[in-house]
C-alpha cells in the first residue's frame, strides 16, 4: 500500500538464526528434540499438582501456573521458528508481528508478576507461619494469579498501543527469528527517541526493579532461615535458593534485552533463543528437580501410566 511517495510495510522479513541450510537443519532437530523432552515434563508437573492431594498448597498451586504460563509463552515464537527453518523467505505479516509482540509481553509480564506472588507466598510461610493458612487461602491465591495475568495484560497493552500506530515504510528486515519491540521500533519511519524511553521505563526499568526486589526479599529470607538448623528450615532454604535460581534464569536475558539502548549486539540472537525457547520451559523443571515431594508424586503418575500402557 502506498502513502504519498512512501510504501507502507505490510510484512516483515525475518532473517532467522542462520542462513546456512545445514545449520538450520541442525537447529531444527535440536529444538524439536528439546520440545519433545521438556514440554511433556511441564505438562506432567501440572497434572501431578492437580492429582496429588499432598501437593494441595499455595506453593505448588503457583508452580502449576508457572508451568502453564511457560507452556503458553513457548507456543508463541518457536512453532513459526521451526517452520521457517524450511522456508526460503521467512516473512510475517505486520498484524501477526504485532500479535506476536503483544502475547510475548503479555505472558512474560504475567510470569514476572507470578514470581512476585510466589515470593510473597514464601515470605508469609517463613515469617508468618501461624497465620499462613489464613493469609494464603485459595481465594487469595486465585486473586494473586488473576492479578499477575492482569498486570501482564496491562503492560503488553501499553507496549502495543505505542507501536501499532508507528509508520513503517521500509526497510522491513528484522535480524531475528521473531518480532519484538526493541527491533520493530527501529524500522519506524519517524523519530522514536521519546518512545524508546517510554518503552524502556515500561519494560527495562520495571524488570530491573522487580529483579532487585525479588533478590532482596529472598536474600533476607535465606539469612533469617540460616539462624536455625532444623530440617524444616533447611527445606525452606532449599526452596528459596531454587526460587533465586529461577529469578536469575528469568530476569537475566530479559535485562540484557530491555535494560539497554535498542541497538544490535553480537549476542542478541543467542540470548533471544534462551529467553523465548530454552529458559521458559526449564523454569518449572529446575524447581521440580530440587523438590522431593513433587518428584515422588510424578514417579507415581509415571508408574501408573507405564502400568496402563503395559496392559
UniProtKB/TrEMBL annotation:
Its main location: membrane. The lineage of its organism: Eukaryota, Metazoa, Chordata, Craniata, Vertebrata. Residues 41-287 form the G-protein coupled receptors family 1 profile domain. PANTHER family: OLFACTORY RECEPTOR (PTHR48002). Belongs to the G-protein coupled receptor 1 family. The chain crosses the membrane at residues 25-47, 59-78, 98-120, 141-168, 197-224, 236-258, 270-289. It comes from Dromaius novaehollandiae. One of its GO terms (molecular function) is G protein-coupled receptor activity. It is found in: Cell membrane; Membrane. Keywords: Cell membrane, G-protein coupled receptor, Membrane, Olfaction, Receptor, Sensory transduction, Transducer, Transmembrane, Transmembrane helix. It is a multi-pass membrane protein. Pfam families: 7tm_4 (PF13853). This is Olfactory receptor. It comes from the Eukaryota. One of its GO terms (cellular component) is plasma membrane.
